[in-house]
Amino acid sequence: KRVGILISGGGSNMVALAKDMVGDHPGRAKLVIANDPGAGGLLKANALRIPTAVVDHRDFPKDREGFEAELQVVLEEAGIEMIALAGFMRILTPGFTAKWAGRMLNIHPSLLPKYKGLQTHARALEAGDAQHGCSVHEVTADLDDGPILGQARMDVRAGDTPQSLAERLLPLEHQLYPAVLRRYLAGDRTPVMLEG
Ligand code: GRF
């Protein structure tokens, strides 16, 4: 399957996916699309020789559908069949998620269904959770809500801050996402469960 990776920022999850997609991998990253021309991940995609595109959401103020229509054109022109959202920070409309139902994954930095949305690390700390982690799920119309395909969990330590949690979680994300994508592309829906 021709995989497209959507990013908004540094793209470390995109790098982890792209580096895993070599050799006999069932899907190679054919395109990296950023919604921000300044996304650092674009340079990393260049270094990995992956074609890139930018669809700047600021070109479509208050026009989410217009932004997605342009995104769709770019995806179709590249023959993309599967989307991996990786640090992608735009909310997608039900129209777009319906079009890509069963063909779009996302990674979210919490142990879903806990802490959908933003500020997940701070919320886990405020709740006094003993464990924290990340989840990969199928994208549906509802934010951070689709079927969970894998999770990686780790202990919260005394003195942890949102920053220290995020830093310790990122390598787990980089292990989880490629493992889930491989399994998903092989048609296997058994959840990937990792302990950090
Ligand atoms: C990560 O915490 C990821 O879970 C979240 O955005 C952060 C940065 O991701 N979605 P990346 O380095 O841009 O892949």
Topology:
Layout: E1 3-7, H1 12-20, E2 29-34, H2 41-47, E3 52-54, H3 64-77, E4 82-85, H4 94-99, E5 104-108, H5 120-126, E6 131-138, E7 148-155, H6 162-185, E8 192-195
Parallel strand pairs: 1-2, 1-4, 2-3, 4-5, 7-8
Antiparallel strand pairs: 5-6, 6-7
The chain binds 5-O-phosphono-beta-D-ribofuranosylamine (GRF).
5-O-phosphono-beta-D-ribofuranosylamine is lined by residues 7, 9-14, 86-87, 107, 109, 134, 166, 173.
Active site: 108
EC number: 2.1.2.2
Keywords: Purine biosynthesis, Transferase
What are the salient characteristics of this protein?
single chain; 196 residues; alpha/beta; eight-stranded mixed β-sheet; 6 helices; 8 strands; 22% strand; binds 5-O-phosphono-beta-D-ribofuranosylamine
Describe, in short, the structure shown.
With 196 residues, this protein is an alpha/beta fold. It contains 6 helices and 8 strands.
Task: Give a description of the structure.
- The chain is an alpha/beta fold and 196 residues long.
- The protein is 34% helix and 22% strand.
- It is built from six helices and eight strands.
- It has an eight-stranded mixed sheet, with helices on both faces.
- α4 (94-99) links the parallel β4 and β5.
- Bound molecules: 5-O-phosphono-beta-D-ribofuranosylamine.
- The site of 5-O-phosphono-beta-D-ribofuranosylamine has 14 residues, from α1 and α6.
The protein's oligomeric status is single chain
The sequence of SSEs as H and E is: EHEHEHEHEHEEHE
Number of helices: 6
How widely separated are the two ends?
A: 30 Å
Give the helix level as a range of percent. Answer: 25-40%
Q: Which ligands appear in the coordinates?
A: 5-O-phosphono-beta-D-ribofuranosylamine
Largest sheet: 8 strands, mixed
Adjacency order of strands in the biggest sheet: 3-2-1-4-5-6-7-8
Please state the overall shape, judged from the principal axes of the Cα atoms. globular
Average per-residue pLDDT, rounded, comes to 97
Stretches where pLDDT falls below 50 for ≥5 residues? none
Strand tally: 8
| Secondary-structure class | alpha/beta
Radius of gyration: 16 Å
Instruction: Tell me the strand percentage band.
Output: 15-25%
